[in-house]
Amino acid sequence: MSLDVAYPVQTGESGKSSWSPGNQAAYNRIKDTINSMNFQIIGEYHSHINGTPELSKDDKEFIKEEADSFRKNGVEIRNWLEMILKIESKKYTRKHAQSCDCSYLKKRIRFNIRGINSPLVGYSITIGTYQYNLETQNFEEANVYVP
Ligand SMILES: [Zn+2]
């Protein structure tokens, strides 16, 4: 599988069972482009700041609604992949040179990035990916690899 296009959409508001884009007109243009260009959608990604790299109950409901919405508009979706980036910032007491390392955690991958904006700041980004089977309506965690 290869990815041709990834559109970023900024969240305006998110709540327990709701989500809205920061710019509704821009979001509508993206959906119209997807429909008119006949792109095949493979899924979405979003971040959990200081949370977990796992799907919440609300995430699952949103994914089901979003996949159904695309299908009703004639967009072919076989399986849906949802990538979640858990992002944590870290403050260090001693200075760190710029570095980045990655490690595999069972099915997930984690990047530790240090000293990019400041020698006393770093970030840990853990990526979890889930496959949603539209026929069975089941979610299953997928393996994440970096080439
Ligand atoms: Zn989420």
Please characterize this protein's 3D structure:
The longest helix has 16 residues, at 57-72. The two termini are 13 Å apart. It is globular, with a radius of gyration of 17 Å. The protein has one domain (40-142). A hairpin with a 2-residue loop joins strand 5 (99-105) and strand 6. It has helices at 24-37, 57-72; strands at 11-14, 19-21, 43-49, 79-91, 99-105, 108-114, 121-133, 138-142. By secondary structure, the chain is of the alpha+beta class. The strands form two sheets. Strands 3, 4, 5, 6, 7 and 8 form a six-stranded mixed β-sheet that branches. Strands 1-2 form a two-stranded antiparallel sheet. Helices cover 20% and strands 40% of the residues. It contains two helices and eight strands, in the order E-E-H-E-H-E-E-E-E-E. Bound molecules: zinc ion. Zinc ion binds next to strand 3.
Briefly say what this structure is.
This protein is α+β, with helices and mostly antiparallel strands and 147 residues long.
Record the SSE blueprint.
Layout: E1 11-14, E2 19-21, H1 24-37, E3 43-49, H2 57-72, E4 79-91, E5 99-105, E6 108-114, E7 121-133, E8 138-142
Parallel strand pairs: 3-4
Antiparallel strand pairs: 1-2, 4-7, 5-6, 6-7, 7-8
The helix/strand order is EEHEHEEEEE
Poorly predicted regions are none
* DSSP summary: helix tally: 2
The average pLDDT value, as a whole number, equals 89
Helix content: 10-25%
Largest sheet report = 6 strands, mixed
The tally of structural domains comes to 1
Q: How much beta, percentage-wise?
A: 35-45%
* Cα distance spanning the termini: 13 Å
Summing up helix and strand content along with how strands pair, one would put the structural category as alpha+beta
Radius of gyration: 17 Å
Give the overall shape, derived from the CA principal axes.
globular
Annotation, overall tally of beta strands: 8
Hetero compounds: zinc ion
